Every structure is written in C-alpha cells, then in structure tokens.
Automatic annotation (TrEMBL):
Its EC number(s): 4.1.2.10
Subunit composition and interactions: Monomer.
InterPro entries for this protein: FAD/NAD-bd_sf, GMC_Oxidoreductase-Related, GMC_OxRdtase, GMC_OxRdtase_N, GMC_OxRtase_C
Gene Ontology MF annotations: flavin adenine dinucleotide binding; mandelonitrile lyase activity; oxidoreductase activity, acting on CH-OH group of donors
Keywords for this protein: Disulfide bond, FAD, Flavoprotein, Glycoprotein, Lyase, Signal
Family according to the record: Belongs to the GMC oxidoreductase family.
Organism: Cucumis melo (Muskmelon)
Enzyme class: lyase
Catalytic activity, reaction form: (R)-mandelonitrile = benzaldehyde + hydrogen cyanide
Cofactor entry: FAD
The protein's name in its UniProt record: (R)-mandelonitrile lyase
Keyword check for Disulfide bond: yes
C-alpha cells in the first residue's frame, strides 16, 4: 500500500518536471508535420493572388475543409495564428496546463477573453485552431443536433466524413486509474448502460475517443493538411484577415495583413468561393467588419453597409459548466476527459485530474493555502448540457482593429430551463460522490488526511433544495469552451451554409450552430469541414 503511494507520488513529480520542460524545450514530438511544406509566412505571399477557394481561419473546421477542396481546386488558407510547432506544449496532453497559464501577450496559441457575464474564456489562435489548445475529447453529435440544425443532411456522407476524420486524428484511450475510478462511479450512480468504448452519442456511460494518442501526443486539425494535394494548397500563417471584399452583393476577395502590418489582397476565380471558418467569435466579427450586419449598428460605427442582416452576432450561446473541485488523499496521474456519463436529457458529466488550474476561474484565485497550482491530487467533476436556451450577442470593440476581441455576452441562466438542467446535473454529481467507489477513496488515510478536501464554493448540503442548487449553479457558472452561434443556420446562412443574400460566401464553423453538437463539439466541427468540402466537390462535378 505505502509503496504504491510513493510510486504515484514520484511519478507525479516526474510529470510536473516534464510539464515544465515541455514549456521551455523546443523539441517537436513525433507528429507528422509534412504539411509544413506548404505553410508560408504571410510576409512571403505576394500582395495580389488568385485562387478557387479562400478559407478564412485554419482551425478545427477550416483545415479538413481546405484539405478536401484541394483535391480538385486551388485553395488558400489564411490563419491569424502561427505554426503550432512553435509551441511544444500544445503538442502533448501534459502541456494542456500551459495553455491556461501562458498569459496573453498577443502571440500565444490561445487568446483569452472575458465575456460581459464575467466568465473567463479562451479562443484558439494558432494553425489548427481550438483543436490545438483543447482537452481533446472526441465524441460524435447527438441525434437532436442533426434533427434541428436546419440542414438537409446526407447522413451517409456524414458517416463517411466522421470516419475520414477518425482514421486521421482519433485514438482509443487507455484509461488511467482516475478515469477508471470516475467511470466506475458513473455506472454505480446509475448512468447506465455501460457502452464500453464508443465514438457515437449513446445514453449511459462510455469511454470516448481522444485526439491525444497513448503517449499523449496531440493530433489536432493541422494533421488533416497532411492529406491535402500539395500542388493545390497554400496556407499562410500570421495572416490576419481584416475584411471580405465585395463587388455589389458578390464576395470576390479578402484583405489581410501580415505580421509586419503590410496589406495583401487575394481574389477568387470564376465559380470560386470565400469560406469563413474563423470560429464563433471570429466569423460574426468579420461579417460585421465587412459590412454585413444590422444596418443601424453598422452605420453607428461608420462601417459601409454591404447588406442589412439583423441576425449577425445574435444567438451567441455558451454551455455553462457546473461541478465541484476537490483534493484526493493521494496524488493521481494527470488526465483530460476520457470517459463521459450521458444522462437522459443530454446532460453530461466528465472528469479531469491533476490539470487543475485550467478549471478554476479566475486562475489560481481560490486555492486553499498549501495547494499548489499543479497539485497532483486535484480532480474535478464537471458537467454541461446540450439544449441551452439562454442567448446573448456579440458586438465589436473596434471598427478598425480586427485583433481587438469583440465584446460577447452569453446571458448564462437567463432562461429558466437551463437552471433546471443544471440542477439535475449537480444532483448527479452528488450521487457520484456517494458511490461506494468514491466512499472508499474518501476513507483512504494519508497522514491523517481523511476524506476529500473540497475547494471553492461547496455543493449545497441539501441537493433536494431546488433553490439552493439553482443558486449554486449561478454562483459557480463557468465555461466548457463550447460557445457557439453568431451566424446560425436559417438566420445568417442557409441549409448549405451559404450566407443568405450574398454570392460566393459560405460559413463553416461553430458560429453556424444554434446548439452545440454532442457531449463535445470538435468531432462534429471536423466532420462538418470534410462534409461541406465533399458536398462542394459533388456540386461542381455535377455542374461541369
Ligand atoms: C480550452 C478548451 C477546451 C476544449 N475542450 C474540448 C474537448 O475536449 N472536446 C471537444 O470536442 N471540444 C473542446 N473544445 C471546443 C472546441 O475545441 C471548439 O469548439 C472548436 O475548436 C471550434 O472550432 P471552429 O472551427 O469553430 O473554430 P476554431 O477552431 O477556433 O478556428 C477558427 C480559426 O480562425 C482563426 N481566425 C479567427 N479570426 C481570424 C482572422 N480575422 N483572420 C485569420 N484567421 C482568423 C483562429 O485563429 C482559429 O485558428 C474546447 C475548447 C477550448 C478552448
Ligand atoms: C514572418 O516574418 C516576419 C518578418 O520577417 C517575422 O517577424 C515573423 O516572426 C515571421 N513569422 C513566422 C511564423 O515565421
Ligand atoms: C493534385 O492536383 C493536381 C492539379 O489539379 C492534379 O494534376 C493531381 O492529379 C492531383 N494529385 C492528386 C494526388 O490528386
Ligand atoms: C475594449 O477594448 C479595450 C482595449 O483593449 C479594453 O480595455 C476594453 O475593456 C474593451 N471593452 C470591453 C467592453 O470589453
Ligand atoms: C433552500 O435553500 C434556500 C436558498 O439557499 C434557503 O433560503 C431555504 O431556506 C432552503 N429551504 C430549505 C427547506 O432548506
């Protein structure tokens, strides 16, 4: 007994040291980086070029989309961030810690923002987008998402697109001790059946996929680029798109700046298109800056109007995170989410261990004395739910500087339905804590430290008291980083992701979602990039 604890302690120490090394070393773990052959510094691109497709944002959806289109057409990807290999910590699961503590000097792969609700949040700013800085959990979209997205899905093509994604970036994780414990307690608390390992969305408990392989290497969206037709694709990094250019109501080019501030233009050929994949914050921001948005709002900012579009920047939504943080009586190995409990009404419970500073907003603020930032005994049980009815909006903070983050408000829990779901989820976490598996851990005795030491606001003592749990939900609200909306299907884009009222312009990313798909959205965002790419190839081969 004593022996195994000492071993765990030593392992945790080694991992902490490894984390520090990852932060400072320049070694590139063994990811396939052959895509770097066609990645260029924007400063090296000429000031006027032509392509069939220009994709704004080389992120989670943008990379698979670009790769797919490059099989037949010339493609330019414009990404404001840099090369992920410049930041070794994003390339391994153990570096996840650094994503949240790296600060924000304008050059890091993650950009911090605080919504007007006061909740700290993060956006990807690197080639590969959010998939390079996220927690890596991979799980397909839920049935209701496909039924309500406003899209006439070709479900066979959806299946093919998911499979293409999965063979490139997804691994079956081996659960470490903590993830197994968490999984067992889900089952014990009645989150059944046990669905084993499955990438599909199934009620019950399952192990999901991960873009971290079993030595912890991240396989983010950049790796789709390895499948591109190298003669047809060009990726420009540190290429910040300022606005989309139009001829009347047809998009025909983009204006972007390189890291030296020099302006470049790129145009599309006949039958070509511009596709916005700048994410749920970036895409509505760029539409507004380009003159597509509410007329009176744009004129108040003196932005020239291209099209009056009242819904741009509306329906911004974030899935609130609820949960509890505690210190175990012994250290555990770090792990991001690998298992999930899916309750009947699409409420989800996951757990992360030893990577704690991520989850405590604001960072470091309420750790008790003695608990360090990388406390290897810290674990969290967290939850979210799918159908978020509270909505907010986005507006610009600068009408000239695209680098200035827009102002976002999500209005968490402004709709009473959301509180009801949180209450159910928190109660389930209460059930988990009472399972035999958890009780056994609580009574393990290390230096007289019995039981869990809870951090932050404690769970209400009486989880049967609805108003006490509601209060807890509101007081502890934070983000799962699954914010979406701003350019939703049926309002800003049609069922083919084309911007309504504009020619040659599409949006393919999380800004089009009125609901975040599945337990975690990355799988479906990657699928969507591939899916829309395949659809476009089909349509053009039918035309020719
Ligand atoms: C900390 C964190 C943890 C998460 N954990 C998970 C998880 O475990 N599982 C999961 O499924 N999901 C997770 N997510 C959510 C998921 O990663 C995101 O929803 C997803 O990556 C968003 O994809 P996207 O294609 O919509 O946008 P992004 O991937 O953000 O892509 C947008 C890209 O556009 C670029 N861009 C923006 N503006 C401009 C401009 N003006 N010019 C040029 N380029 C521009 C950005 O730099 C970015 O690269 C997490 C997210 C975060 C932040
Ligand atoms: C691109 O070139 C500029 C100017 O030489 C330089 O400052 C910048 O660091 C380069 N960026 C990358 C990603 O190499
Ligand atoms: C790549 O694109 C070029 C030009 O369109 C084409 O000739 C070539 O066959 C393509 N290669 C592959 C492997 O598809
Ligand atoms: C707008 O940007 C400025 C400068 O970055 C910042 O100080 C301010 O807080 C922002 N406003 C809002 C409402 O976020
Ligand atoms: C339920 O919680 C509320 C809010 O904390 C409290 O005011 C009330 O007294 C509690 N009711 C019972 C029956 O405990």
């Amino acid at each position: 007994m004593e022996h195994s604890r000492v071993t765990i302690l030593i392992l945790s120490l080694m991992i902490s040291i490894f984390q520090l090394q990852l932060h400072s070393s320049h070694a590139i773990p063994n990811q396939d980086v052959s895509y770097m052959k066609f990645v260029h510094n924007a400063t090296d691109l000429s000031t006027k070029e032509e392509y069939d497709y220009i994709i704004i944002g080389g992120g989670t959806a943008g990379c698979p989309l670009a790769t797919t289109l490059s099989s037949k057409f010339s493609v330019l990807v414009l990404e404001r961030g840099s090369d992920p290999n410049k930041y070794p910590f994003v390339l391994n699961e153990l570096g996840l810690f650094n994503v949240f503590t790296a600060g924000d000097d304008g050059k890091n792969p993650s950009q911090r923002f605080i919504s007007e609700d006061g909740v700290e949040n993060i956006r990807g700013r690197v080639l590969g987008g959010g998939s390079m800085v996220n927690a890596g959990f991979y799980s397909r979209g839920h049935r209701e998402f496909f039924e309500s997205a406003g899209v006439d899905w070709d479900m066979e093509l959806v299946e093919k697109a998911y499979e293409w994604v999965e063979e490139t970036v997804v691994s079956q994780p081996i659960l470490n001790a903590w993830q197994s414990t968490f999984r067992s307690s889900l089952l014990e608390s009645g989150v059944v059946p046990d669905n084993g390992f499955d990438l599909r969305h199934l009620v019950g408990t399952k192990t999901g996929g991960s873009i971290f392989d079993n030595i912890g290497n991240r396989h983010g969206a950049v790796e789709f680029l390895n499948k591109a037709n190298t003669t047809n694709i060009k990726v420009a990094i540190e290429a910040t798109v300022q606005r989309i250019l139009f001829s009347g109501l047809s998009a025909n080019g983009v204006l972007y700046s390189d890291s030296k501030g020099k302006l470049h233009k790129a145009f599309i050929r006949k039958k070509g298109e511009i596709i916005l994949s700048a994410g749920a914050i970036g895409s509505p921001q760029l539409l507004l800056l380009s003159g597509i948005g509410p007329k009176s709002y744009l004129s108040s900012l003196k932005l020239p109007l291209v099209l009056h579009q009242p819904y741009v920047g509306q329906s911004m939504s974030d899935n609130p995170r609820f949960g509890t943080y505690f210190i175990l009586p012994f250290p555990v190995l770090p792990s991001s989410a690998k298992a999930v409990g899916i309750l009947q009404d699409n409420i989800y419970i996951q757990s992360i261990a030893s990577l704690l500073p991520i989850l405590i907003p604001p960072i470091f603020s309420f750790l008790p004395p003695g608990a360090t930032s990388i406390d290897p005994s810290l674990v969290v049980l967290i939850g979210k739910f799918s159908e978020v009815h509270s909505e907010g909006s986005l507006r610009l903070n600068s009408s000239t500087d695209v680098k200035r983050s827009p102002i976002v408000r999500f209005n968490y829990y402004s709709h009473p339905d959301d509180l009801g779901r949180c209450v159910k989820g928190v109660r389930k976490i209460g059930d988990l804590l009472k399972t035999k598996t958890m009780e056994k851990i609580k009574t393990q005795n290390l230096e007289d430290n019995k039981g869990f030491e809870f951090l932050g606001v404690p769970l209400p003592e009486n989880l049967g008291n609805v108003s006490a749990v509601e209060e807890y939900c509101k007081k502890t609200v934070s983000t799962y980083w699954h914010y979406h909306g701003g350019c939703v299907v049926g309002k800003v884009v049609d069922g083919n992701y084309k911007v309504i009222g504009i020619k040659n312009l599409r949006i393919v990313d999380g800004s089009t979602f009125s609901e975040s798909p599945g337990t975690n959205p990355m799988a479906t965002l990657m699928m969507l990039g591939r899916y829309v790419g395949l659809k476009l190839l089909q349509q053009r081969s039918n035309l020719n």
